[in-house]
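The material for today's practical consists of a large collection of protein records. A record pairs a protein's sequence with a compact description of its fold. Instead of coordinates, the fold is spelled out as a row of discrete tokens. We will come back to this pairing of sequence and fold again and again. Here is such a record, shown just as it appears in the course material.
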Amino acid sequence: MRLGMCSAFLPDDMDDLTPEMCRRVREMGFSGIFTRFRKNDPHTTPRAKAERVRQMLADENLRLFQVTGYWQNLVTSDEAARKESVRTVRAALRLAGWLGARGIDTGPGSMHPDGPWFPHQANWTAVAHKQLVKSLKECAPVAEDTGVYLSMEGHQLVTLESAEITAEILDEVNSLKVTSDYDSANWITRETVFDTASAVKHHIKVLRKHIISCHAKDIWIENKLALHLQDGCPGKGLMDFHTLFRQMEALSPDYPVIVEGATTEEMPQVGRLFHQVAAECNIRVFDADEEPA
């Protein structure tokens, strides 16, 4: 298994990434990162900037597991807007290739005007489903050409509302480079929050052939009179990370499991927790320069 981290002290601008940050990542027990370089426009960022980061990571023995897909609306029925979203994802894939990233991570987007993960009734329609398939098929050739995974992240509030719907859409796209980044918390419901082990097993069984990475964050149900499920730092909630690790290891020891939801202050503790869970599951954690047998 490979362990990675995102957010925390990692910068929004690739120019601000330093060797000292890379060493800090490794000191906490992680061999790779997921960066969200929000300030670097994929349409205009020069290749030389990306290659500086690529060389730095190689020098520091750190892998770039994922970079951002910039969270475009790939489900809109507005064809001009959808085509522009596809253009941005294609640019993100090319930039990821220059960076030496294994993949990009993005959701399908949302019809809600306030954000790509917010609920909107149009997200769950046949039209959204059709538009997402069309968008991903148009992105697939660039993913295949660059060798960069286009990893889709699902959530019950957007078009990829379940493992079943995600598998159906990825089957329709039918590209080995258009895949699933499984997020441990995003499909947990009231019915499954107290039995996350069964939920995780079900999700991975349904999506098995499509999953190539994992975002590991926690989830819990809050004491409120309106249903509220809160995700966050691993170790704070009800996620069964032992089951998650065993399931991901069974898919491939080479797949990265990436911490989400932890602050800079929380990250060292999460690193220790994840190494402890791996050891208790008898799972070997690989360094960046090691390859599974």
Q: What stands out?
A: DSSP finds eight helices and ten strands in the chain. The chain has a mean pLDDT of 98.
